[in-house]
């Protein structure tokens, strides 16, 4: 008989996935306590990931063989600093978003579907965490589909506020499935060549092939994966599903998905491009640098310009999110320590800022009923805390010093300079200028217009909405002032991904 | 004695930063009682003045200045930078007192008292709305100014520079009318745009190349220039990024935010033009040239020479535009654009004498220009007139205001006995010393132009008869008149007693390697 | 030439997949899009399944007296088909069915909300809604 606590500590990595999975299934059975149940589950998952993170931070990586199948036979979970960091971000955001979800869901979704909502919600989190923790390529696909399917459903639940949530969700479903299928194809080709699904082993097999760049199967696998991943992380110009999906989803869903889903997509890109194919194949032999950088740079500018034209604040932020993905992709495509670190830091920073901003807009929707620019007018007086959060988040998007966004830009621009690309450095900062323009549309509406319609009677949102929002925005400011934790972790993780680093 | 213990705990430059910040909180708390609120503003202003003077005279931190010149650069217990926050390894927010910053801090804290007094008269006289927000932002802007003045490295300067843009934005957009909001957008767009797009790029590139952003005599580039990691063209590019990145210095063609910001209430214009914003710009330009690039590096690579010609062109073009402005505040705005380039041109000549001129002119222009703006606001409050063509005979009704205005114009032109004469003297000496004939020509032409666009206003005010249909009015409310006269007196006093500014300017010179 | 024909199984999968892909992108009816998506995924299943087949291989059934230690089937040619991709596809088929189910559920809801499942008409309705919102915002 194994003692219970030993059972837990020995199986920590498995619990990160199993706990929300079972929790999600049970959420349909707990009746009125679905929210409380989800909060407990996500809270415990956060503690688990934190334990994992501290363990990985101190020592080398961690390996866990699922179901005690030996290496290469079963699914292996492999945790290094990179995915421990992403796990921490995802589970942290999920926890805060779950707390936030209570009132927002009560407001936006009919009561008879709350249990289903939380069930699907926890399953989505399961998928996102699973993708991040697993070391098995096919497992990535399965968990990717779990998270995607549940997110399609979550987005479609916005239909009671705006029927366009349905079309947005379907569009995402179709493009998302195509993207996932491409990833599946890519994995299939890799399986053909290497005969393995374990990521580390795949890398070893590929390295053993001296003529990998001449092997057409590998090239096709690479191409399919690159396109599929770009679709999943909404890299311009494959981002078309994103703006509407974010705009019409329920507020809590937008906050959670915006902060985590595309980030996990980026994480997958890290894994496939750096861990499986390796730095040399991806960035020396293949023209990934040019492809990714051009997509990212053009995306930063075009989505910035599109964001300026939006009249719905949620949509504006959604376009801004695509641009931010551009920064993240540009960072890792540079494939130098500063760039990759900037990319990683920005995954966290953007998750905190954008998650917080979408939550604040959710609070606006809760009180005012909409998130059009018109609804934001005069908000600075009526809902000072919410408006303050939006302002602080906007400053972060601009990359104002003392916000997290500044730290990201700091590393990204250094990465661009280290890569010898002044033009990219300038594009990154030009993106900030566009951010000034589109954020200022919101700030002007909030502080220099008189409230009208429902906004005129609005009061500050309830604390259950405001506190989680402030928590995320607060994090984004704290890590802007004292960035040693985020930047230090990112630099270490980046060093491990690049040649010369220890895996 | 509890206060004094706190004084011992908090380093003086941080104190200068904290006092206006605390003042802003107080103002916010007292928002419902206007008299108490204005009391808080004045109290904060006087306390800040006390602290800054204390730093200068060494009362608060004895021993700081008594060290032989240039010694406060070698870090000892009392002269090491005060680190507030370390964001990333090596990137920290830190403060340090040095002579150039001292000049700026002295000017800002002195003029803030007068400006507060003036604001009270103006805001009440014109029954402006949102006065609490106005005073809060004002105090925060001054806090940012103190931060800029005492920044120990380029990163801190950048942070406070951006904070200043942000805190002055609500002041520019104060009226909330579509026109005001649009102008404020231009203001913020140009300032944040240049600083994020160019200055930040330069900043990060500097860090990338040298790994050092600390202000120090000789600058940070000597090492990399010597071992060849940095070539002259790249240094030139960096210099360009800095000079155009500091949009607050209003070098043409990024001067447009200044006329746009004229939509703000007059005390704000005064703040922008004299106390805080443009001075932050030229101060940063001078500081960057002396302590980040280092005159020696710039001279050896000849990468700063273009600035002389750009600044010279700015002076002349802005003066010509000013000639044709009928709106008084707009004419003053273009005059500011040209005067700022005086400081830039002085700094870009890179000779010790010219650098002194730059430091002196920061002070001289501040006093002169604030007088002119105070006078313009005084006219607006008393007579509701904005245009020069309406000012016939106004000098007889508002003798104090227009008297002060005249002193201000004389200082702008550079006629003794005003402060403008002294800085112009050093500027000409500097140009003579370095042999830039172009600068001498520019100075002569611009002096003529200055006279051409300022003296007609004085003539009109004193020697033309007032129109008959004019409604009668007298002087503006007393706080305004007192403030105007005080700044005018300051302009004259600086001519007779330029010791403070000169002493500090000399110390800058001695600090040079 | 014979090389091209010999791998006819891959040609079938590519044709199926491309037919599906074309349908997803070009069809204007949402149900047809969903069907095409299913076809697209089925093509990929076939790819996996056919790649595991070994010439002359049999079903990989373990005999009672079979060896206790078996080498990696793909790395070493063996007389039986690789079971791994087939097992993977069991999972993938479940995933595909779920996607189709979610897609159909959403399409039913679209029909209820908008009264149509034609892509062009939906786009038109959405454009009108957006134009109205833009007008309201401009006020």
Name the average pLDDT of chain A.
86
- Low-pLDDT segments, ≥5 res of chain A: none
Number of domains of chain B: 1
How much helicity do the residues of chain A have?
over 70%
Extract low-pLDDT stretches of chain B: none
Beta-strand proportion of chain B: under 5%
Give your account of this protein's structure.
- The two termini of chain A are 36 Å apart.
- Chain A is globular and about 70 Å long.
- Chain A has 503 residues and is an all-alpha fold.
- Chain A has 2 domains: 12-236, no CATH class; 287-498, no CATH class.
- Chain A has helices at residues 4-10, 12-26, 34-58, 81-108, 114-133, 137-156, 164-194, 199-208, 216-232, 242-248, 251-276, 278-285, 288-309, 313-334, 337-368, 373-376, 379-382, 384-398, 404-418, 422-448, 463-481, 484-497, and strands spanning 62-65, 76-79.
- Chain A has 22 helices and 2 strands.
- Chain A is 77% helix and 2% strand.
- Chain B has 513 residues and is mainly α.
- Chain B has one domain.
- Chain B is built from 22 helices and 2 strands.
- Chain B has helices spanning 2-9, 12-29, 34-57, 99-125, 131-150, 154-172, 178-210, 222-226, 232-245, 257-260, 266-275, 277-293, 295-301, 305-323, 328-348, 352-383, 394-397, 399-413, 419-434, 437-463, 478-496, 499-511; strands at 82-88, 91-95.
- A two-stranded antiparallel ribbon of chain B has the order 1-2.
- The mean pLDDT of chain B is 81.
- With 139 residues, chain C is mainly alpha-helical.
- Chain C has a single domain, classed as Helix Hairpins, CATH 1.10.287.3510.
- In chain C, helix 2 (8-26) packs antiparallel against helix 3 and helix 3 runs antiparallel to helix 4.
- The termini of chain C are far apart.
- The chains are: A mainly alpha (503), B mainly alpha (513), C mainly alpha (139).
- At the A-C interface, helix 6 and helix 7 of A face helix 3, helix 4 and helix 5 of C.
Task: Give the topology, please.
The complex is a heterotrimer of chains A (503), B (513) and C (139).
Chain A: H1 4-10, H2 12-26, H3 34-58, E1 62-65, E2 76-79, H4 81-108, H5 114-133, H6 137-156, H7 164-194, H8 199-208, H9 216-232, H10 242-248, H11 251-276, H12 278-285, H13 288-309, H14 313-334, H15 337-368, H16 373-376, H17 379-382, H18 384-398, H19 404-418, H20 422-448, H21 463-481, H22 484-497
Antiparallel strand pairs in A: 1-2
Helix pairs in contact in A: 2-3, 2-5, 3-4, 3-5, 4-5, 4-11, 4-15, 4-21, 5-6, 5-11, 6-7, 6-11, 7-8, 7-9, 7-10, 8-11, 9-11, 10-11, 10-14, 11-14, 11-15, 13-14, 13-20, 14-15, 14-19, 14-20, 15-18, 15-19, 15-21, 15-22, 18-20, 18-21, 19-20, 19-21
Chain B: H1 2-9, H2 12-29, H3 34-57, E1 82-88, E2 91-95, H4 99-125, H5 131-150, H6 154-172, H7 178-210, H8 222-226, H9 232-245, H10 257-260, H11 266-275, H12 277-293, H13 295-301, H14 305-323, H15 328-348, H16 352-383, H17 394-397, H18 399-413, H19 419-434, H20 437-463, H21 478-496, H22 499-511
Antiparallel strand pairs in B: 1-2
Helix pairs in contact in B: 2-3, 2-5, 3-4, 4-5, 4-11, 4-16, 4-21, 4-22, 5-6, 6-7, 6-12, 7-9, 11-12, 11-16, 12-13, 12-15, 12-16, 14-15, 14-20, 15-16, 15-20, 16-18, 16-19, 16-21, 16-22, 18-20, 18-21, 19-20, 19-21
Chain C: H1 2-6, H2 8-26, H3 30-51, H4 83-114, H5 119-138
